[in-house]
Amino acid sequence: MNSITDSALLSNGVKMPWLGLGVYKVSNGDEVVKAVRTALEIGYRHIDTASFYENEEGVGQAIKESGIPREQLFITTKVWNTEQGYEETLQAFKRSANKLGLEYVDLYLVHWPVKETYKETYRALEKLYKEGFVRAIGVSNFHIHHLENLMTDCEIKPMVNQVEYHPRLTQQELHAFCRKHQIQLEAWSPLMRGVLLEEPILVDIANKYGKSPAQVILRWDLQNQVVTIPKSVTPQRIKENAEIFDFELTAEEMERIHSLNQNKRIGKNPNDFDL
Predict the structure, then answer these.
(1) Which residues contact 37 (CB under 8 A, 6 or more apart)?
(2) pLDDT of residue 272
(3) pLDDT average per 10 residues of sequence, the chain (275 residues)
(4) What is the DSSP letter of 27?
(5) Which residue among the candidates 53, 108, 122, 165 is catalytic per the annotation?
(6) What is the pLDDT of residue 142?
(7) Domains delineated in the chain
(8) pLDDT value at position 45?
(9) Distance between CA atoms of 164 and 241, rounded to whole angstroms?
């Protein structure tokens, strides 16, 4: 992990860049277009969006305007809860692909484990994968019991599980389960929406390396073998988030950061998500 172009290798052999740009709560139109264009100009090649974010059109516009060859990009989107079900998901994917202006998507995820429908939703993802419309499939916000239940019936094991993950929520049991089953863990809200940026342990480590606490957290993600997608619309912050490949945390520093865990969420618990 020495470069922004370095990638995790998914279980099917597809390469997924370790660092990406998340665009949750980024407004469609100029705001998302500028954020994605900035990231691509800096060297990001991984962009994460979702149907629920309502900014797929802007992401697609930025991709088109960038002029970067499609095969060099890794684009993720997700099927929302109200779109779930087998036929519904197939239609939802068509809508997302059209909004993005893409013939295929690199990663398609089930956004949340809607109890009544997530298995049928995932079956639609398997169809899309087999037909070549997506290069990899996976889930988001799945606990171990959700994954175990899904894997009793699915033909193709999820390749990615995108979850809330940061030093206050290290999810070590889930991470170990995913490693065992070759499911790549991916972090949403890796910076805990800025809550951790004044944490003394992180500030201390950051000062040692001449980095920011945010950069330390993102480096911790990578050294834990977790793909990370920090969100920002500020050019300087997007650039700063990418400057994490020129230093390495020691084993002791990694443990100090792990010690911050409180199993504390800022998002919903997937077991209690109100649909």
Answers:
(1) 62, 65, 66
(2) 87
(3) 94 98 97 98 98 98 98 98 97 98 98 96 98 98 98 98 98 98 98 95 98 98 98 97 98 98 96 76
(4) P
(5) 53
(6) 98
(7) 7-258 (3.20.20.100)
(8) 98
(9) 18
How far lies 108's CA from each of 29, 165, 196, 270, in Å?
Answer: 23, 19, 30, 19
Cα–Cα distance, 190 to 164 (Å, whole number): 7
The per-residue pLDDT for 11 is: 98
pLDDT at position 274 = 65
**Number of Cβ within a 10 Å radius of residue 190:** 25
Q: Say how far apart CA 79 and CA 132 lie, in whole Å.
A: 17
Bridge partners for 81 per DSSP: none
End-to-end CA distance of the chain: 38
Query: Tell me, what amino acid is at 156?
Result: I
Q: What number of H helices and E strands is found in the chain?
A: 10, 10
Dihedral of the CA atoms 61, 64, 66, 71 (nearest 10)?
A: 130
**Total Cβ atoms within 10 A of residue 72:** 10
**Other CB atoms within 10 A of residue 272 CB:** 6
What Å distances lie between residue 54 and 28, 78, 83, CA to CA? 7, 11, 14
Residue of 21, 3, 13 whose CA lies nearest to 75: 21
State residue 114's pLDDT score: 95
- Least Cα distance to 257 among 174, 183, 215 occurs for 215
53 tagged catalytic: yes
- Strands annotated E in the chain: 7-9, 15-17, 21-22, 46-48, 74-79, 105-110, 134-140, 160-164, 184-188, 227-228
